[in-house]
Design a protein that fits this description.
Largest sheet of chain A: none
Largest interface: A-B, 23 and 31 residues
Pfam family, one (chain A): BPD_transp_1
Strand content of chain A: under 5%
CATH superfamily of chain A: MetI-like
GO molecular function, one term (chain A): ABC-type sulfate transporter activity
CATH architecture of the largest domain in chain B: 3-Layer(aba) Sandwich
InterPro entries (chain A): CysT_permease, MetI-like, MetI-like_sf, Sulph_transpt2
Radius of gyration of chain B: 25 Å
Order of helices and strands of chain B: EEEHEEHEHHHEHEHEEHHEEEEEEEEEE
CATH architecture of chain A: Orthogonal Bundle
Shape of chain A: globular
Number of domains of chain B: 2
Domain ABC transmembrane type-1 (chain A): 68-269
Number of strands of chain B: 20
Helix content of chain A: over 70%
Largest sheet of chain B: 6 strands, mixed
CATH class of the largest domain in chain B: Alpha Beta
Oligomer: heterodimer
Number of strands of chain A: 0
Family (chain A): Belongs to the binding-protein-dependent transport system permease family. CysTW subfamily.
CATH topology of the largest domain in chain B: Rossmann fold
CATH class of chain A: Mainly Alpha
CATH topology of chain A: MetI-like fold
Structural class of chain A: mainly alpha
Chain lengths: 283, 346
């Protein structure tokens, strides 16, 4: 716990006995600049050369808007699905001991390691109307492959480990006494989970959500196989960027990229602020 | 609320934590479960709370068999050593939690708030409703935990090493304060501690436990002055012991009678227990225990000496006045003023 007096005010460098502040800050900034800032500002700079009118035309092109909507919409839904099921998976892994627990635990990381194209092809084979699962769903009138639903499934697959791996360590640290106290106070199991445990996990869940969402927005490899890539229906923004590039329309590609960048940054910033707020409250 | 523990046995896998424990707790009593770690005191407390189920036996609240009820239905207040406060709730929300989760006769929010601030007054934390647990000191957190337990009007209040995580000064302060709260509210209270000073000072009666059994139940005077087993004698307060022999109603060390009569003790090997400070120093050599000083330390107002007694150089500790000119190799003769004989183990 830090206990900085409120009256201390803002200072450039908090006095600290740990040396190396200047060195490490300098290194971090230089590194971030090289790896992230320069490429991204190149992107913005390239877009800026386009001029406002052209930019607006590209940005508000119906196909662009639709692609962005699909990208962000499916990523949001997939992240939301992952929050629910990822938290349940983490809970099972942390709370119960069963044969094969370690194997399941290791399996969670597979989406990290698997080439995304492999995942995309595997999912497409399964969910295509003549695939194992697709064949079962087809009679019910549910089409998965080549629809936004397919995109969501691919993104759920890709995003799962982000939620599990952020929530799991926090879950392991839950003090058993807190649950027991809630029980002695008369709380049912559901009330304990919902009112006591869940709020404690919410910052971690939010982080997991943000990571899964960010990954989903940027995902390309697995989606293009299962999505079918019909313009206005199941075409994602990253694919549209690639299409524009193949048409040598670099200006349009960078413009869409800049919009994605801005939207992603705004959403991640918002999530970060929510987190900072909740951390400040709960310590 | 009277609590009766009847022939309770508790096993964890192959480990037996409690063996046939019976205990009657009177209504409104403040009782301490005292024992070393692994003695089963916390297990007994958790069984009363309903956080564990007995392998055998039953626990009664009044005439009602509480072992048939779940934790939620028992209506007990439980306080943990590490507070177990809800981090994301304010102090007031923590205290009001037990009322808020009620299904039946849940009081209105305004009433819950009023009750929380009333309890904060009781635990002397007036005005801290809006704080979060992270913003409180250890002692304050434990007060909040107690207020939270009291909020549900528990039938029994159970405290598991409530002051264990606090430093010595806060501990003493909270001890006195807990006694006051108890006298004010009159809840039947059971607390677990391994600190005998805490148990003796705070509790109406002390339950001394060892290895899953209750060794003795009694007031501070009872367990200190008339311990009923070698364990209780050596666990409570300072004690010294010497292996002796009983013959013809007299106590012998090697071939010397030490001037202690033991008419009711059967002949044979025995162990003599006494308090190191409860002795008289003697001159001469007859009818006393004699030995040479092996080590001596000054401790506060007295001097502790280690004496080697008899041919097999059994060491015993004594407290003597600082004015006594004892140094190493000095011969000291003494006789305990009060003592207790227990048959030799095995």
């Amino acid at each position: 716990m830090t206990s900085v007096p409120a009256s201390a005010g803002w200072r450039f460098k908090a006095p600290s006995v740990i040396p190396g502040f200047g060195l490490t800050l300098g290194f971090s900034l230089a590194y971030l600049t090289l790896i992230i800032l320069i490429p991204l500002s190149g992107l913005v700079w390239r877009t800026a050369s386009l001029g406002w009118t052209d930019f607006w035309t590209i940005a508000f092109d119906r196909r662009t808007l639709k692609a962005l909507e699909i990208s962000f919409g499916t990523a949001l839904i997939a992240a939301a699905v992952n929050v629910v099921f990822g938290t349940i998976v983490a809970w099972v892994l942390v709370r119960y001991n069963f044969p094969g627990r370690r194997i399941v635990d290791a399996m969670v990381d597979l989406p990290f390691a698997l080439p995304t194209a492999v995942a995309g092809i595997a999912l497409t084979t399964l969910y295509a109307p003549n695939g194992w699962i697709g064949a079962l769903l087809a009679p019910l009138g549910i089409k998965v492959a080549y629809t936004p639903l397919g995109i969501i499934i691919a993104l759920v697959f890709i995003g799962l480990p982000f939620v599990v791996r952020t929530v799991q360590p926090i879950m392991e640290e839950i003090d058993k006494g807190v649950e027991e106290v809630a029980a002695t106070l008369g709380a049912t199991r559901f009330q304990t989970v919902w009112r006591v445990l869940f709020p404690g996990l919410s910052p971690a869940i939010l982080t997991g959500f943000a990571l899964a969402f960010a990954r989903g927005v940027g995902e390309y490899g697995s989606v293009i196989f299962i999505a079918g890539n019909l313009p206005y229906v199941s075409e994602i923004a990253p694919l549209l960027i690639v299409i524009r590039l193949e048409e040598y329309d670099y200006a349009a590609a960078t413009a869409i990229a800049t919009i994605m960048l801005t939207l992603s940054f705004a959403m991640l910033l918002f999530i970060n602020l929510v987190q900072a707020w909740s951390r400040k409250r709960y310590g | 609320m009277e609590v009766r523990v009847a022939h309770v046995r508790k096993e964890f896998d192959r480990f037996t934590a409690l063996r046939d424990v019976s205990l009657d707790i009177r209504s409104g009593e403040l009782i301490a479960l005292l024992g070393p770690s692994g003695s089963g005191k916390t297990t007994l407390l958790r069984l009363i709370a309903g956080l564990e189920r007995p392998t055998k036996g039953a626990i009664f609240f009044g005439d009602e068999d509480a072992s048939l009820k779940t934790v939620q239905e028992r209506n007990v207040g439980f306080v943990f050593q590490h507070y177990a406060l809800f981090r994301h709730m304010t102090v007031a929300e923590n205290i009001g939690f037990g009322l808020k989760v009620r299904r039946h006769n849940r009081p209105p929010d305004a009433e819950i708030r009023r009750r929380a601030s009333e309890l904060l007054d009781l635990v002397q934390l007036t005005g801290l409703e809006k704080r979060y647990p992270a913003q409180l000191s250890g002692g304050q957190r434990q007060r909040v935990a107690l207020a939270r337990a009291l909020a549900i009007e528990p039938r029994v209040l159970l405290l598991d090493e409530p002051f264990g995580a606090l430093d010595a000064q806060v501990r003493r302060e909270l001890r006195r304060w807990l006694r006051e709260i108890h006298d004010k509210t009159g809840h039947t209270t059971v607390f677990v501690t391994h600190d005998q000073e805490e148990a003796l000072e705070l509790a109406d009666r002390v339950v001394v436990m060892s290895q899953g059994r209750i060794e003795q139940v009694g007031t501070a005077d009872d367990v200190y002055d008339t311990p009923n087993s070698p364990f209780v004698f050596s666990f409570i307060g300072e004690s010294s012991m010497l292996p002796v022999k009983v013959e013809k109603g007299e106590v012998w060390i090697a071939d010397r009678a030490i001037g202690i009569a033991a008419p009711d003790t059967p002949d044979g090997e025995a162990v003599l227990y006494f308090r190191p400070h409860d002795i008289e120093l003697l001159e001469g050599s007859g009818g006393c225990i004699a030995g040479t000083v092996a080590a001596s330390r000054r401790v506060a107002g007295t001097r502790h000496v280690e004496l080697e007694v008899g041919g097999d150089r059994q060491r015993v500790e004594l407290e003597i006045p600082t004015s006594h000119p004892a140094s190493e190799k000095t011969r000291i003769a003494f006789r305990p003023k009060k003592w207790k004989l227990f048959p030799a183990a095995g």
